[in-house]
Amino acid sequence: MVDWTQMRDCWFEVDRVPELLERVEHDADTDVWKELGWRLVLEHDLVSPASFAALPCLVRLAPHNAQARALAGEILERAAGHHGCDDLLADCASAIAQFREVLNRHLRSQPPDYLVAFRALLSAEEEYHWAAALGDFKDDFYPLACPHCDAKVTIAIGDYGRYSTIRDWDMGDVERRDLRPATAEELTGTGKWMYEMAVRDGQEVLADGISYLFGHAECPGCASIFNVADEYTSANRPAMR
User: Fold this and answer.
1) Based on the number of CB atoms within 10 Å of its own CB, is 98 exposed (0-12), middle (13-18) or buried (19 or more)?
2) CA torsion sign, 18 to 21 to 25 to 26?
3) 3-state class of 224 per DSSP?
C-alpha cells in the first residue's frame, strides 16, 4: 500500500494525486487528466515522489488508455534525472516490466499514438536520451558540434530534406550536405533495435528517419565525416543521477 501522506506531488501537496487517480480509474474527463499530468510532471523535467507512486496505477490503465500510456512514459522519461526517488523507482520494477509488455503489444497494432508509445517504450527500456530527442521526422533538427573543427552544425531530417548545414540568421541553411543513411546491416545497438521495431510495425517514415539519424553527415565547414547519433548524443545526453 502506498502511504500517500508521504508522497508529495510537484506542487508539494499530498492529497490531490490519490483523489485524481481514483477519478481516472472511472473514465475521467480531459481536465482531470490534465491536472494529474501537471501534478506528476512539471516543466523543466521535474518529477516527485507521487510521480513514481502513481506509476503502477497508470500502468494498469495503460492497455486501454492513451492518456495513461503517455503520462507513464513522461514520468519514466525523467527517471534518469536528479529526482531523489531512487527507492520508489526501484519499487516500480515490476510495473515497468509490465509497461514494456503493454507498449510492445500496443505498438504491434500500429496505433494512431504510435510515436508517443514508441517514446514511452524507449523510456521503459532506459533509453532516456532518445525518448526525449526522437521526433516524427517531418520537421526535425538536431544541433551538434563537428567533432573535428567544432563548427555548429544542424542536422535536418524531414519532409524538406535530409542534410547537414551551418545555419545563418539571415540566410537560413547554407552549405548543405546530403546525409548518408545507415543500411539495416550497418546499424548496431540502440539504433538497430529502434529501426527493427519501426520496420516490424510498418512505420516507414520513422524507420527511414532512424536510418539517417544513425547514419553519417559531412561537416559543411571542414568536410569531415562523422556519425550523427554519436555526436548528437555526446552534445545532448541528459545528465544522469
Assistant:
1) middle
2) positive
3) coil
Cβ 165 vs Cβ 145: under 8 Å:
no
Q: C-alpha grid cell for residue 67?
A: 492518456
Model pTM above 0.85: yes
Residues constituting the chain? 241
Say if residue 177 is exposed, middle or buried (CB neighbours under 10 Å; 0-12, 13-18, 19+).
middle
pLDDT digits (tens, 9 = 90+) for 38-76: 999 987 678 999 999 999 999 999 999 999 999 999 999
What are the tens digits of pLDDT across the range 114-158? 999 999 999 999 999 999 899 999 999 999 999 999 999 999 999
Cα–Cα distances (Å) from 19 to 111, 180, 195, in that order, read: 30, 52, 40
Taking the C-alpha atoms of residue 16 and residue 168, their distance in angstroms, rounded to an integer, is: 48
Set of cell numbers at residue 224: 569531415
List CB contacts of 194: < 8 A, sequence separation 6 or more: 122, 130, 134, 210, 214
